[in-house]
Amino acid sequence: MSKQYQKETICIQSGWKPKNGEPRVLPIYQSTTFKYESSEQMGRLFDLEESGYFYTRLQNPTNDYVAAKICELEGGVAAMLTSSGQAATYYAVFNICEAGDHVVMSATVYGGTFNLLTCTMKKMGIECTVVDPDASAEEIGKAFQPNTKCVFAETIANPALVVLDIEKFAKLAHEHQVPLIVDNTFATPINCNPFRWGADIVTHSTTKYMDGHAMAVGGCIVDSGHFDWSAYPDKFPGLCTPDESYHGITYTEKFGKAAYITKATSQLMRDLGSIQSPQNAFLLNVGLETLHLRMERHCYNAGRVAEFLEGHEKVAWVNYPGLKGNRYYELAQKYMPNGTCGVISFGLKGGRQAAAKMMDGLELTSIVTHVADARTSVLHPASHTHRQMNDEQLKEAGVAPDLIRLSVGIEHVDDIIADLQQALSAVD
Asked: What string of DSSP letters covers 89-158?
């Protein structure tokens, strides 16, 4: 958009901009392929000499309009949609890492991300060192190696709710000549823009707040355009040396600030194919149109629920960055002063058994794997999302055995609290 609008306006108006006589609502380009008049023009597309669409496994117009909206919300230069948040994380890292490389990662990231980087990508020859996000810069700095290619962390950790000191991590990454990749799923660009604080690449599981209705799995990668890949050609040969699979194109030379996303699209999406379906992108766009409204309600409701839990006699502890007195309250006020997210973690005095009994007694609130949509939901991570971790890894990830993850929805807050009250009353 030519004018710099507020985020509320971007949520609704950015991306698809219909011309005279075109549909007002973003169309679903439900086609695998696209027609051209000449063989020569098709050839130019395959050589990356011309922009356009030829096969939806790589790019699709519906997807690109939605990616453009997210890109503008984050303040980036280029973005791409993926089939899931996991795919976004994988592509974001693998786009600049190969066998023999190394990643530094915050210990408190989502369990699936932890497993991806420490186990699955290890099988591909990419090593990962896990660091305590609250450790000193000096201590974290010891994790870097000559072959380190990036740092990965989350603005608000799922489910530990650790608020990342973005500036600290960005400074460390840049001192070691690598980019900081930040998963901004929980905060969303409504509440936090990591690029403002030095992050270089942002990822999202659009399945969560962005979609907002638990209808469509998806992911997104946004590039800030700030990291100068060409300054470190030996560290990032995939971007700074010719790609023989595209007739010797060097991405940084040909595409400038769009090099990172162009490579991820034309190389990784071409070969691995984790594209988001146009139908899902359409649903995501509908969700984005109300993201600013929903995040405000999520945060208000979560604040009220956190206060209720904090005052309940059967609750042992409550972790919510929006609560005054929380260890991350000051960081949250710095990076996301208008609110954090709608997710709360807490534990009961009766421990793991009490947690299970309380969860089974909920009526309005659902036990689901999902998190961060319009409906209030609950999960016991040690038994579910993080069950692949041992006790030591759980501790590193900030996931206590009794931790309950409560995703506060946008129902009336009094009804949410009443449901929790009646479930807690049945706990011994």
From this structure: HHHHHHTT--TT-EEEEETTS-HHHHHIIIIIGGGGT-EEEEE-TTS-HHHHHTT--TTEEEEEEESB-T
Cβ atoms of 223 and 76 closer than 8 Å:
yes
The residue to which tokens 């699209």 are assigned: 265
Half-sphere exposure of 366 (CA within 13 A, CB side): 12
What is the amino acid identity at position 385? T
pLDDT tens digit sequence for 211-265: 999 999 999 999 999 999 999 999 999 999 999 988 899 999 999 999 999 999 9
What's the Cα-to-Cα distance from 124 to each of 103, 128, 278, 301, rounded to whole Å? Answer: 13, 11, 30, 43
What is the b/e burial string over 101-139, where b = at least 16 CB atoms within 10 angstroms of the residue's CB?
Answer: bbbbbbbbbbbbbbbbbbeebeeeebbbbbbebbeeeee
Q: Which residues contact 391 (CB under 8 A, 6 or more apart)?
A: 401
Give 268-322 as a DSSP string. IIHHH--PPPHHHHHHHHHHHTTHHHHHHHHHHHHHHHHHHHHT-TTEEEEE-TT
How confident is the model over 101-119, as pLDDT tens digits? 999 999 999 989 999 999 9
Strands 180-183 and 102-106: unpaired
